[in-house]
Amino acid sequence: MANELVVELPDNDKVLDAQTVKQDFPIFKEVGQDPFVYLDSAASAQRPSKVLEAMDSYYHTTHANVHRGVYRVAEQATNLYEEARSHLGRFLGAPKPELEIVFTKNATEAFNLFAHGYGRKILGPNDVVLLTKMEHHANIVPWMILREQIGFEIRFIDIDAEGQLVLDNIEQQLKGVKILGVTMASNVLGTLNPIKQLTEYAHQEGAIVIADGAQYSPHLPTNLQVLGVDAYCITGHKMLGPTGIGALWARTSILEEMYPFLGGGEMIRNVTTEGFTTNDIPHKFEAGTPPIAEAVGLSAALTYLEEIGLENIRAHELSLTSYAMEQLHERLGSEIKIFGPENPSARSGVISFELKDVHPHDVSQILDQEGVCVRAGHHCAKPLMTSLNVPATARASFYLYNTESDVDSLVSALVKTVEFFR
Amino acid sequence: MANELVVELPDNDKVLDAQTVKQDFPIFKEVGQDPFVYLDSAASAQRPSKVLEAMDSYYHTTHANVHRGVYRVAEQATNLYEEARSHLGRFLGAPKPELEIVFTKNATEAFNLFAHGYGRKILGPNDVVLLTKMEHHANIVPWMILREQIGFEIRFIDIDAEGQLVLDNIEQQLKGVKILGVTMASNVLGTLNPIKQLTEYAHQEGAIVIADGAQYSPHLPTNLQVLGVDAYCITGHKMLGPTGIGALWARTSILEEMYPFLGGGEMIRNVTTEGFTTNDIPHKFEAGTPPIAEAVGLSAALTYLEEIGLENIRAHELSLTSYAMEQLHERLGSEIKIFGPENPSARSGVISFELKDVHPHDVSQILDQEGVCVRAGHHCAKPLMTSLNVPATARASFYLYNTESDVDSLVSALVKTVEFFR
Amino acid sequence: MSGLEDLYREIILDHYKNPRNHGTLPTPPAVMEQGYNPLCGDEVRVYLLIEDEELKDIRIEGQGCSISRSSASLMTTAVKGKPLSEVRRAVKTFKKMMALEEDSDLYGEEIIPFEPINERTVGELIALQGVVKFPVRIKCATLPWNTLVQALESAVQS
Amino acid sequence: MSGLEDLYREIILDHYKNPRNHGTLPTPPAVMEQGYNPLCGDEVRVYLLIEDEELKDIRIEGQGCSISRSSASLMTTAVKGKPLSEVRRAVKTFKKMMALEEDSDLYGEEIIPFEPINERTVGELIALQGVVKFPVRIKCATLPWNTLVQALESAVQS
Ligand SMILES: Cc1ncc(COP(=O)(O)O)c(C=O)c1O
Ligand SMILES: Cc1ncc(COP(=O)(O)O)c(C=O)c1O
């Protein structure tokens, strides 16, 4: 299955200037170490001042609990929160932004909400949930927990040597599948999956598709209507927003059908000592006081991303990734193994690798001494590690504030590492 | 049952100066309305600069994802997050602060976690969960959702005319009860419940006690070891902390027994395509990227509260509450009905009331025109509303930054309201 | 207390204190639907007696603020005795006045050309126009109307 | 690359590249326990052959970083052939070196007076002392030791 992903990339001179972008992010000036080469945005991105300012300004001028206040400040807080919801919906190209976004604390909660709200509703002991071997634990473990409660089968789509999904017999694999869960972009391999086509196949078999956009929407333009998926998860802290916020998007019809998940204030219509009835969507799924300031911060992050332009971000990351892969191969030769697709345009700005005879933990430790921050570990993708037959990988990941000089630092530090362990 | 609550109150001249305290909270200078008489801290408190500065400083100097990073910045972030955990544990008097606190997004999630993690483990169709008619929906609805899945009985302890729990026959009421869920302080009535004694009774009957500290720990010194309860919930935004964070405290033995709830990264030890094993407590219950900056902010809020002193805060609120009740009775006479205990020392700084022939919504609206912010509605306590036989109440709530002059504004605005609707 | 007059017009306070068509109707033949405002705990029960595509009678009971109760009372006077088609149109017109009319498009409903909102077309209901400036209260004002719509639906189904 | 020498001593790199007592033992008579570091995906399998309260033989297998593997290798040389009481004491001493000894009190375990940590008392293990300055890596160093404790427990139970 060819990847249908076509992002119109801008001319070279419109692409962002990462050095200038970096100025917007206070941590690059204020962190207590120099150099600070941050190559771990796939774990969590940094925040521009505007995001922090938006949250501070919210707390300085408008804070009150939302939804239940009649007075003006509470109303303004509610408006800001609801505007953030619509903003995220528009950012993702959701057809009904104000109805279909459920704010959660992170992408993980969003998957749990979908599994327990929708999965529990439609799955029975004889059903099948199809995942992929490159899923993040967030899109695996909730299904396993649900399976313990109601029983059903979980299958995994395999990956090939280049880290692409094995989809030759996809129609076969989809037989009897009720739910397909698949990541837009692997957080380890960088692989960009052909979601649109996969969804078409899945829909033909009557399966519902939930896509993991945690590693995609921060980096490439997202259009849910084009993708055709039925549900989608994101997390704020990977897209320049604060920690403490994520979201589930799902079609209205699905949200309407879903069981409530977390119970408490705000998600109810009425409660008696006998039982309760639920509120309208999306509030039905937002129990308790929501992450209000975090929603305001996320909205500011989206504005920032929109102003720079997701196409520009993609173009910039693509060029960095190409440069990095080139340099790594050139300078480290057979000492390095890079996982995932060889063609940079088939991947996001994530590079996982292995140095010969050096454990990723040691790689990361030694790189840290050089001021280079990369992640080492299983990246919450243990089935993928098993599949790749490694205990862990080291991973460098790029974002809009990374420069070619960051890549150079990475490469030199890796060369030193190899020497150190020789 | 007499309330065993004894807080050593400080001498009058040690009690805090609310006018000075107010200076620490930027919203009182920067909100776009004057006057701004904020009497809705029971819904959500405001934040002192120090809390916002702590979060900004975290984002400016230290942000990275926690727990999985080898490099220094990630390690510092992890330390800050774990220190916040211990800090909250110490603040609550938890015996093992670093093991027993699970961070959640709010108190509501904490209750859901306890219901689905522990309730699901120990409850069967013939068991009983005992709640009270003054519980917040957060401690009712999760039990109802769980009941739909596994079946059991939910009973409610009644309240008397003064808004106190009816506990004469408590031993009788506790027969066969597996879990007792009870609020430390009612968010509507202000009633401070005799949790220590209730817990003793409950333990005699073999019941496990979960207490709702959302309206208590922000205002009075908490000592879990003295209280003797088995589990406890708080929420950050009501105790000067940011939105997006709350916590469940539970005894180690209970956390060990509990099923995992949210599944995903960080809560696992291993995942294969076959299944998963769980991480150690408390991480087992913290799936996905946690509210890191929010934990840092919450810890700063706790420091602020500790510096002022919870005894001083209690003394201050008690004096404000006494003054307010006095003034309300004096100036509004039979036009006002105040719910809850008549004796201010039997209640927290929350006053719910009804104006004759004026709906709480209208009260709040008219008060807002006078710059006075109070909440109107069911306060997420519908069974209590039914019990009080009102559709809603208006509620004024005090915190450390409120002054007698705020009380005066409230009283005058209420007098005007009565006149307006006469 | 300036600003408030827009919200609390004389006529609103009058309908609040002296609600018209208050009470119940025997079901059957009448239908009853209940509406909640989860925001504030308001509830309303709308009783409809429909004969030959006409709303013969309507009664309202419940608890609510001045806005929701006066809106309910004003609603009863506006729709009582009218053919169902006119009742439906009144609902749409009212929602337009509450600045909610764009919804009718969004939810894929048929778009009906509204009459302009003025005293001549909406009568006493015009008194509720000030609510639009207080967005939180719009839900109060619309509660009885939404419940009316539900009741109309269940009448059609039964 | 200053600072790193504290962590990556010669002897650590040597034990990493040439692990002692690597491999497996037939179970039974040996016992085997598996340990994971969920942080980084490291895993270790510890095989113990115990006879007459003595650790006759020990073998280790698994995947891990230089710290966890050298710690495992150093551990085997420290405990092999020792009476179980000495093995347990070695574990405690090692944990003290990792600045984890306060735990023994916290978890209500019996408090054993530790020997001072120096080259004479801990031998080659002293090479791991530098790990304390790198708190994230402490878990790497302790993984084989914790797994040893588990294996001792399951040997006692079986
Ligand atoms: C007594 C009580 N419990 C629980 C909660 C729930 O807190 P949150 O909305 O932060 O989850 C609240 C606040 O609304 C409360 O007042
Ligand atoms: C692909 C993918 N999905 C889901 C997640 C979970 O995000 P969070 O930890 O914010 O819930 C992550 C991030 O760790 C991820 O990379």
From TrEMBL, chains A, B:
Protein task: Catalyzes the removal of elemental sulfur and selenium atoms from L-cysteine, L-cystine, L-selenocysteine, and L-selenocystine to produce L-alanine.
Print the keywords alphabetically.
Lyase, Pyridoxal phosphate, Transferase
Q: Does the keyword Transferase apply?
A: yes
> Which residue ranges does the record assign to the Aminotransferase class V domain?
37-410
This enzyme's EC code(s): 2.8.1.7
Q: Which residues form the signal peptide?
A: none
- Please provide, alphabetically and separated by semicolons, the GO molecular function terms listed in this UniProt record: cysteine desulfurase activity; lyase activity; pyridoxal phosphate binding
Q: Which NCBIfam families match?
A: sufS (TIGR01979)
Top EC class for this record: transferase
Query: Which InterPro entries did the record assign?
Result: Aminotrans_V_dom (IPR000192), Aminotrans_V_PyrdxlP_BS (IPR020578), Cys_dSase_SufS (IPR010970), PyrdxlP-dep_Trfase (IPR015424), PyrdxlP-dep_Trfase_major (IPR015421), PyrdxlP-dep_Trfase_small (IPR015422)
Q: What protein name applies here?
A: Cysteine desulfurase
* CDD domains in the record: SufS_like
> Could you say which protein family the record assigns here?
Belongs to the class-V pyridoxal-phosphate-dependent aminotransferase family. Csd subfamily.
Which reactions fall under this protein's catalytic activity? (sulfur carrier)-H + L-cysteine = (sulfur carrier)-SH + L-alanine
Please name the GO terms of the biological process aspect recorded for this protein, alphabetically.
cysteine metabolic process
Organism of origin is Ferrithrix thermotolerans DSM 19514
The prosthetic group or cofactor this protein requires is: pyridoxal 5'-phosphate
State one Pfam family annotation: Aminotran_5
Q: Which PROSITE patterns does the entry mention?
A: AA_TRANSFER_CLASS_5
UniProtKB/TrEMBL annotation, chains C, D:
- Tell me the classification of the organism that encodes this protein: Bacteria, Bacillati, Actinomycetota, Acidimicrobiia, Acidimicrobiales
Q: Which organism is it from?
A: Ferrithrix thermotolerans DSM 19514
Instruction: Give residue ranges for domain NIF system FeS cluster assembly NifU N-terminal.
Output: 8-140
Could you state a single Gene Ontology molecular function term? Answer: iron ion binding
Among the GO biological process terms of this entry, one is: iron-sulfur cluster assembly
So which domain of life are we looking at? Bacteria
Q: Which InterPro entries match?
A: NIF_FeS_clus_asmbl_NifU_N
Recorded hits in Gene3D superfamilies, A to Z, give: 3.90.1010.10
* Entries under NCBIfam families matching the protein: SUF_scaf_2
Q: Which family does it belong to?
A: Belongs to the NifU family.
Q: What is the protein name given in its UniProt record?
A: Nitrogen fixation protein NifU
